[in-house]
Write a structure and sequence with these properties.
This protein is an all-alpha fold. The protein contains ten helices and no strands.
Length: 168
């Protein structure tokens, strides 16, 4: 399969062939590098479809993406594309990142929570900050501050997610 060609098909906001690509990568995990490299594509539709494929792969076989935590984090830090900004936070807190990378992730998520225009991106950033605190207590103060921000200044969707997180 030509992964890049498959990812370039379909509209930017759609899943297009990303699930097909995810199944292919799961069957041939040595091809995952092609997928990760495509995060730097200039075509926004490709980047959108890559982010969808990454989430699908991670949901089924997290180990396939674990070696690429640094690259995924770099993509999150450098991108302003909303599809990537709302998909990668679902994955990154669960990858094997070192202390510096985790701090960078926390900083980026905090920035997205406070500044991004997309309610979906802000909601995913909140969830990711809470996920980080669940696995490393060093991130609890930021997760608590994120929850407070969500309740005080967040959209209805962000407040609803914060309420659901409190129930856990």
């Amino acid at each position: 399969m030509d992964v890049i060609q498959a990812l370039s098909e379909g509209k930017r906001g759609s899943v297009a062939r990303s699930n097909e690509v995810a199944r292919y990568i799961l069957q041939y995990p040595d091809e995952v590098r092609q997928l990760v490299n495509a995060l730097a594509a200039e075509n926004p539709a490709v980047v959108s479809h890559v982010s969808h494929a990454c989430v699908s792969i991670f949901a089924q076989e997290p180990a396939v993406l674990r070696p690429f935590g640094a690259e995924l984090l770099e993509a999150l830090k450098e991108s302003s594309q909303w599809e990537l900004l709302h998909q990668l936070p679902k994955i990154l807190p669960h990858l094997d990142l070192d202390a510096v990378q985790l701090t960078g992730l926390s900083d980026r998520l905090w920035h997205l929570l406070k500044n991004d225009r997309s309610s979906i991106v802000r909601t995913c950033a909140l969830q990711a900050l809470v996920d980080m605190a669940e696995t490393d207590e060093k991130f609890e103060p930021r997760a608590c501050a994120a929850m407070a921000f969500a309740f005080e200044q967040g959209s209805k969707a962000l407040q609803a997610r914060a309420r659901n997180l409190l129930k856990l």
